[in-house]
Fold this protein.
Amino acid sequence: MARERIIDASSQDPEERRYDLALRPETLDECIGQEKVIAKLRIALTAAKQRAEPVEHILLHGPPGLGKTTLAHVIAHEMGARLRTSSGPALTRPGDLMGILTNLQQADILFVDEIHRLPTVVEEFMYPAMEDFQVDFTVDSGVHAKTINIPLQPFTLIGATTRAGMISAPLRARFGIQQHLEFWSQDHLAQCLARSARILALAVETEALNLLSRCSRGTPRVANRLLRRVRDYAQVRADGRITRALAEKALRIEEIDELGLDPLDRTYLRTLIATYQGGPAGIEALAATLGEDRDTLEDVVEPYLLQIGFVARTRNGRTALAAAYRQLGLQPPAAPPARTERQPDPPEDASLFE
Ligand SMILES: Nc1ncnc2c1ncn2[C@@H]1O[C@H](COP(=O)(O)OP(=O)(O)OP(=O)(O)O)[C@@H](O)[C@H]1O
Ligand SMILES: [Mg+2]
């Protein structure tokens, strides 16, 4: 990561993790928002409990910071199960997964974050584990190769990913429950902030909470992070009470605008508009011009810009939409910039044809 972003929903330092832990809901009842997801999970969990079985494998996908990890913990808590955690990039060889799987106890939950980054060999090893609660382990190689079949305890796999599109069809098909997490509404973010303020015993004006929820990019992690910055500011510069004016000042210092866009979002838009004439521009080219990681742009920056209708993704690349021009105080082009082919030059008196 080239620089720290307050908006970045993915990076976390240890102090932030502690803060996060304190604010994380433990039960489904404590969870805010995500009503449809919560309702479906509630049914699945209740049914599994009645049958005294582990719940089906669950795939949670959606942009960073919307509550995938939180939900995995909540599910484990609701099922009274132990949660084991790992991640796609940490499981480099089948042996890594083998160790974890054979140590699972009846009804344990295995949470695999960034599951789209599981190497193929590990992924294939996972199939029989998910389907039949067994693993086929090959010992030796060549003519001495033998496959040993090892039974496992029934368990639940919860996979989380920011890139549902990068999960192979066979892996995806083995998840009985698949849920997409959406960006949160302002109302839910405000509720989340009020809850966090209560837990942290902060005195916050409702107006300040509303402002922060508008500037949180639909993401509870961002909301909680902003609240922390504002709290620090209130403690150092004022008497600790978080007023609307104070929240405004703190946001200004963080260079976050009224839509929650931060400097990287604005640089992204400005680059797309000025350097690439509004696009279409390929993601690699944009990443190179911005000196940013392609993954950061795709996972963190773009989902929200797409959601608010500032950018469109076309086959030929990214295109800036009129709202993005206006936000930067620029005049949107008269014709839509999303051209799939080079257009013929306009006739002399183009206005006749508009
Ligand atoms: N349902 C909820 N109610 C209240 N707060 C929540 C809820 N879901 C998430 N949060 C808060 O949002 C923050 C981010 O959630 P979480 O870490 O689960 O996101 P994530 O989707 O796992 O993100 P990533 O993809 O980066 O791993 C946490 O601080 C958590 O407290
Ligand atoms: Mg997570």
User: Anything to note?
Assistant: The domain at 186-253 is CATH 1.10.8.60 (Helicase, Ruva Protein; domain 3). The chain has three domains: 34-180, 186-253, 263-332.
